[in-house]
Structure formats: C-alpha cells, structure tokens
Amino acid sequence: MSKINIKPCITNKPKIIHIGLGAFHRAHQALYTSELIDKEKTLWSISSINLFGSVELIKELRQQDNVYAVLERGSNREQVKISKSITHSLHPLLDGREKVLETLADVNTAIVSLTITEKGYCIEPSSGTLDTNNPLIQDDLKSAQSPKSAIGYIVEALRLRKERQRPPFTVMSCDNIQSNGDVARKAILGYAKLVDSELYEWIQDHVTFPNTMVDRIVPAVTPETLAYIESKLGYADHCAIACEPFRQWVIEDNFVNGRPNWNEVGAEFVEDVIPYEQMKLRMLNGSHSFLSYLGYLSGYKYISEVIDDKEFLKATLDFMLAEQAPTLNLPSEVNIEQYAKLLIERFSNNKLQHATSQIATDGSHKLPPRFCESLIYNRSKRIQTHWLELGIAAWMNYVIGTDDDGNSIEVNDPLSPIFDSIKSDCKSSRDSALALINLECIFNESITNDTELVNNIIEKFISIQESGAKATLYRMANKIDLNQ
Ligand code: NAI
Ligand code: CS2
After folding, report:
1. Domains of the chain, first to last
2. Which of 113, 156, 177, 433 could form a disulfide with 172 if both were Cys (CB 3.0 to 4.6 A apart)?
3. Under DSSP, is residue 33 helix (H, G, I), strand (E, B) or coil?
C-alpha cells in the first residue's frame, strides 16, 4: 500500500518552532499537540527543524505531509496513533540557514522548543554554564549572523526580532537536563553577552525559559520497528516511531507570548518543576545510566534484559531507594516506593528494544545530574553511595576499557578524543581512573577532593577490570537484604 494519506488539518503558520526533530519529539510534544488539535481545533501547530544529522528524515517527512504514526507499545497492549501537528519541517542543508533564521524570527513564532540532546546546549556539564571552548560556539562567535549551533541560531533570531521590533518568544527546553530552562537561559545569555551587550539585556528582560520535566521512553527506531509498524498500518511509514504507553510532561507556567493548553491532553502546568525534574532525572535516568553501563559491560543488549536479571533488579532497587530517593525534595503526592516499582515495570517492557548502548552515549553530560549530585549530597549526609560509585566505575570502564568478554567498545561522547588519550597515555588502571576523575568538566572538587570516595571508585573500577562488571555487581548485590 502507499504512504499515509491523512493531510494535516492545520494550515496556519506554526506558532511553535521546534529544534531537534528526533525520536522523542515525534512521540512526545508533537503527539500531545496533535491530540490538542483534535480536541480543541487549536491554532498551535509546529514547524520542526533539524540543525544536525541526516536530512533523510526531513525529506521523508515532507513526502508524508509531515504526518506519521506513533505506536505505543506496552507489555500487554498496543495502540497506533497518528500525529499531525507538525506542518513544516526544515533543515539548513535543504532550506538554507536564512530560511531557518527567518522562521525563528517570524512574527507568528511564539515558542521555540528544544530537544537537542544534553550536548546541544554547549555547556560545561559540571557547572551548567556556556562552554566558550566548544568548537561550535567558537565558530559562531566569529560570525554570529551565520550560526551553526542551536544557541547561535536562537540568539541571532532574537536579534532579528529586536531589530524588527517584534515580540519575543519563549524558549522551552525539553531535554533531560536538571533545571533545563535555567540552563538554556544561562547558555543563551552567556553567548549573547559575548555577541552584543544590548541584545543580552533585551533577552534578559523579555524572553522566558520555563523548566520542564519530560518523560516517555522512546528508543531509537530500527528497521524491525518500522517493519512491525508497517504490518499494523498496512502501509510503509518511514517516519513512524514506537514508544512506551506511559508519558508525562510537567511544565513551569512561564510563557511570554502565549501557549497551547497542553493540560487539556494530560500535561501539567505547575509553578515549580524542579522537584519533578530531580526525581525523574535521579530515579529514572540515573537507573537507566546505571543499567546501561553495567548491563552493556555484562553482555546485555537491551534494558529489559538487564532488569530481568534478578541481581541487577535488586541492585537497581537499592540504588533508587537507598541512594537516590534520600536526595530528593519530593512532590507531596509522590509515594517513592510506588514510583520505583513503576519504573521497574517500565524498564521490564520487552516489547521496546531500548539498547544499553543508546543510553550509554554522551555520558560526560549525563553523569553530573544522574550520579554526581546525589553522590555529593549523600557524602555530606553520610548516606551510602556504593551503587553510585559502581555506576561511575562502570562508566569509566565503558569509556576506556572493554566489556566483560574483552570486546572493544565504540564510545559515542563529545569527550571521546580525551578518553582515547587517557587510554593510550596512562600506564596503570589506577592512573587511568585518576585521570578520568580529574576531568573537571564532569566531576567537581567535592568529588575529586574526597580521597575516601575516590579510592572507593577506583577499587570498584579495578574490580570490574579484573573480575568483570557482572561479577562485581553480583558480589555487591549478594550483600543486600531488601527486607531490612
Ligand atoms: P535522537 O537521536 O532521535 O535525536 C536527537 C536530536 O538532537 C536530533 O534532532 C538532532 O538533530 C539533535 N541534535 C543532536 N546534536 C545536536 C546539537 N549539537 N545541536 C542541535 N541539535 C542537535 O534522540 P531523541 O530520542 O530524540 O532524544 C533527544 C533528547 O530528548 C535526549 O537527549 C533527551 O534530552 C530528550 N529526551 C529523550 C527521551 C527518549 O526516551 N528518547 C525521553 C525524554 C527526553
Ligand atoms: C535515557 C532517556 O537515553 C537516555 O539517556 O535515559 O532518554 C530516557 O529514555 C528518557 O528520559 C525517558 O523519559
């Protein structure tokens, strides 16, 4: 059969411009917005942009009128939904930089939303401030009117709006970053200050940056997923995506130029998102990273396989409840034991093939919010940290070592060149571990100056190198009594 023939019902100019048309956006914000369009016939539609990556997805999407299917796949139920909120899709390589900038600067644009991955903000992960040594930022600073980075594009678009006396837009980050709105603000203002001090002040006074907590497990699409969705639809959809049925979106209600009523389709607008973000990042994403490094090294390809191993399950529950939960300032309605149980159920969904190697990418940006902040808190309160230490030791082995069977690992991280030089220059495991812990952009002084903690991490790293990740985790898990 031929491709999707459902035309989007919205024809007005999009008021939301989204940067980062990846898997997550298609299954989360775009789907919420599509449901709102069905419910309210709202005028809020989306123009989605990829600044980086392949242009193929954009070409395919345009051929389908930007309409695609989302398969919500639980262990026991599944449902196909059709998303039609995206009305335009752009890529600078197809449309030119000018067109992208003009779209952002358009008078209709009210919200610029982002899922550009943690590294897209060009920040130093440990401090959350603009990394002026980032190669994209260095390039953009040389010619701010022809940007390459998302930060450079947004600032140039805001400059055009200011010059043309147009209203500002809201910048809404939907990435997994602690205080994602505040971080976007710091990165954008940090860059604007270097470019134009008046513009810096205009942005500071006019633009808002709501924090958001976003949640839905959306693994990278595979040919098998597309074939399965095709069998359900009866036609090929090259832009289809599969995800879990669960979804959550908590948004700080701080929009400078209007917003859709996403609350009508399940999102929540609140005054303070930070407790929700922190809980999700430490409990869910922290466990994901823990399971991905230890699971990958132990030979597990998917998260559902790792959590199916009883020792890993036991370790993860203890990691969540004994080492992450105590650090949280919990929203009043949350029962943390139930939340942990729900997370385990979600991780166990074997209909989703969520690769450990996918979650293991960009660890240099993921470690601070997922492991380091809890580590520092727990040390200051004398709370146990041995799973956090093991998670960091497993990450170290992942970036410079081999898996338990001695296979080399393809590491995908902005710091990969640094990991390679540590691997070739350091003479002993201890030296390599110390070189990694001394990376200031990941680990701050509270960690590096804590000799006992550093020794604990190194001891676990050496144990993983000598007896394997699985054996090390099993040995530690055997000592836990969950009934205590
Ligand atoms: P993806 O790999 O499908 O898409 C990544 C997107 O980021 C692409 O649109 C790409 O163009 C863009 N990008 C990459 N590097 C960039 C850079 N330096 N500057 C600007 N744009 C850049 O990944 P996916 O699944 O869409 O995830 C993206 C982000 O969404 C994650 O990093 C996370 O922060 C957030 N997220 C993802 C969830 C998931 O389960 N996939 C769930 C919750 C949040
Ligand atoms: C994952 C997240 O890739 C990762 O780092 O931990 O993308 C995770 O799937 C989402 O945050 C779930 O909401």
Report:
1. 16-270 (3.40.50.720), 274-477 (1.10.1040.10)
2. 113
3. helix
- Tell me the C-alpha distance between 211 and 183, whole Å: 9
73 Cβ closer than 6 Å to some ligand 2 atom: no
CA-to-CA distance for 170 and 262, rounded, in angstroms?
Answer: 15
What CA–CA distance (Å, rounded) separates 195 from 189? Answer: 10
> What is the token pair recorded at 20?
């980062």
Q: Give the pair of three-digit tokens for residue 431.
A: 């030296």
Three-class SS of residue 214? strand
Q: How far is CA 106 from CA 93, 98, 151, 164, 401, in A?
A: 20, 12, 17, 10, 49
**Tokens coding 389:** 């230490």
- Residue by residue, pLDDT tens for the chain (484 residues) are 345 444 444 457 899 999 999 999 999 999 999 999 999 988 899 999 999 988 999 999 999 999 999 999 999 999 999 999 999 999 999 999 999 999 999 999 999 999 999 999 999 999 899 999 999 999 999 999 999 999 999 999 999 999 999 999 999 999 999 999 999 999 999 999 999 999 999 999 999 999 999 999 999 999 999 999 999 999 999 999 999 999 999 999 999 999 999 999 999 999 999 999 999 999 999 999 999 999 999 999 999 999 999 999 999 999 999 999 999 999 888 999 999 999 999 999 999 999 999 999 999 999 999 999 999 999 999 999 999 999 999 999 999 999 999 999 999 999 999 999 999 999 999 999 999 999 999 999 999 999 999 999 999 999 999 999 999 999 999 987 655 5
CA-nearest residue for atom 8, ligand 2, is 217
Joined together, the tokens standing for residue 365 give 């940006």
Amino acid occupying residue 360? A
One DSSP character per residue, 164-204 reads TTPPP-EEEE-SS-TTHHHHHHHHHHHHHHHH-HHHHHHHH
| Tokens (6 digits) for 318 | 């203890």
- Residue type at position 226: L
Contacts of 415 (CB under 8 A, 6+ apart): 364, 399, 439, 441
Centre a 10 Å sphere on the Cβ of residue 284 and count the other Cβ atoms it contains: 23
Is the CB of 37 within 6 Å of ligand 1? no
* Residue written as token pair 């990450």: 395
**Cα 212 to ligand 2 centroid, rounded to whole Å:** 14
DSSP structural state of residue 208: -
**pTM here?**
0.96
Give the β-pairing of 248-252 and 212-215. antiparallel
Q: Is 316 in the pocket of ligand 2 (CB under 6 A)?
A: no
Cα separation, 292 vs 297, in Å, equals: 8
The three-class DSSP label of residue 364 is helix
Residue 273: φ, ψ to 5°:
-90, -20
Ligand with the closest atom to the CA of 242: 1
